[in-house]
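ok so i was messing around last nite and threw this chain in just to see what happens. nothing serious, just curious
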Amino acid sequence: MTLRALLLGAAFALACAAAAHAADLPVRQVGQIVYDNVPETPPELKAAIAPYYNARSAVFEDWLEDGSILIATRFGDVNQIHRVAAPGAARTQLTFFPEPVNSAKAQPGAARFVYPRDVGGAEYYQGYIRGLAGGEVLLTAPKTRNADFTFSGDGKLVAWSQVTPGDPNYDIMLADPDHPEGRRVVHEGKGAMSVLDFAPDGRSLLLSRYNSATFVELFVLDIASGALKPVGPAGRQIGYRGGAFTADGAGVVTLSDDRADIARPVVLDVATGAARDLEPGAKWPAEAFDLSPDGGVIAYMVNEEGYSKIVLKEVATGKTLPTPALPQGVLTGLGFSPDGGQLGFSLSTSTSSGDVWSFALADQKLVRWTQSELGGLDPARLVEPALFRYPSFDKRSIPAFIYKPAARPGEKLPVIIQIHGGPEGQEQPSFNPRRQSWVNEVGAAVIIPNVRGSSGYGKTYLDLDNAEKREDSVKDIGALLDWVAKQPDLDASRVAVVGQSYGGYMALAAAAHYNERIAGAIDLYGISNWKTFLENTEGYRRDLRRAEYGDERDPKMAAVFEKISPLNMSAKMKKPMMIYQGANDPRVPQSESEQMVARLRAQGTEVWYVLAKDEGHGVSKKQNAEAVRASEIVFLKTVLGTK
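result:
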């Protein structure tokens, strides 16, 4: 055994002893994080996990007019926007804020870009226009939430969606970027309206309205008259994704699942609604796309069992063009250069943190623009997950990935099951320092299932957990526990369940239904009571959540919520629990976590509670991430009995 292992083992023996007396631990605050009944993290562990969060990535955002690229990356505590002038050139930082800036859109014809920024994770984003040499103006109105910033082809206009607190209806805004004080409402929206594109002549906007993951409408808005025209076949609920006008403005390119289980690229005739399929019989869903500036080529991402690939096609003929050969990974950005000759994209893999590349359409030359660091991690210790499927209670096959550390012969590995949020999310094999740290520092096998209701497997699978079918996805975790018990190298007596957001609800539900089969659970900003969640989530998203989860105002659905809310099943939860919450979370408010903590403690269940005062729905700041993830590892090592 190495000296490092001995030191960590001794440190964790002390940590476990402290955890046994967690009820006696005082509340303490370190920076912006409050720890309630949480042992301190041993210094040795802090040092061990720091490299995982020192690793940084580069995410493609947009091309600038001069052929340089905007990326999102982190040098300090949070992501900011940087410019890379040429392949291999330095990352020049353009935004400098204590809050993260994760996206940017270049203004055509100008050395400027627009980006959104909020405060403390509250998600009330303001839009700012910034020049490459500095100088910044506020584009949006204070005390509003803004998104989907889109420039006209000549860069002389910018449109976006805006909503005010408590209002579910997004308005469509328009402004001259040089005179943002003249911003005006061009359409008073109903529901979750978004801006997708300007028509080539700048006189119309392509809009979408999101009703649910499988029902998204498209419209063309005439800016001068305000007339709104639906686009696409009438009388059917279709899940469109994105949209862009064809070069002549007479058509719209989008991703559609009309009369199919998955989305694929189509061209819609604006006048008639007729659709022309660019990939009939597609086997795997398309997820995002970009159209070349001349409208001739579409580039889109395809999701094959969680792994990404790029497809290029001629819009006029549907002919498939040569595409780059990529390693198995997950695409995180995609876009054509202003001249249409190059496709920029970013890719993350399980063992590389993510970089930006370009692909030349003419000669198929693939060029790497950034070289992201692993923060001192030994690449040889990073684990590639294996894809597998397991049968659930109704014989349905559930996809999952498993990460395994090297195990000694005859040794059984403890297991950590991590459940994604959404619920329409999907666990994918991208770079994830948290999972890698669980493998290497906890010594556990990590399983990330895509239970029913996950995206990436078609709309039938997506709808399998809706409304009164909610607990069927929890049964998928029970079936996974059955699968674990049958594996010769996994220890079914040492299983922890972890989930965030909707996955937090799943972790809580699993802790109730399978208390005797787990050693502990971590709930991060999870839904503890469906009624109070739907009543208290921000107004701009409440109706969208009702479309997915069910309407608490319906007596029949209210009875279902009463039955399945974890808060009402707390008496079954006997195993130790760690709960994390961001104080500014607009989606799952702090009250959801605190009522769960109070209920569990009142019945004598051990709870570790971590509250970040400067975070929202997640952990966006590096310093906070290191601290919260370290506490998770202390908890996991304690309940799983690892040293």
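not much to say yet. The chain has a mean pLDDT of 94.
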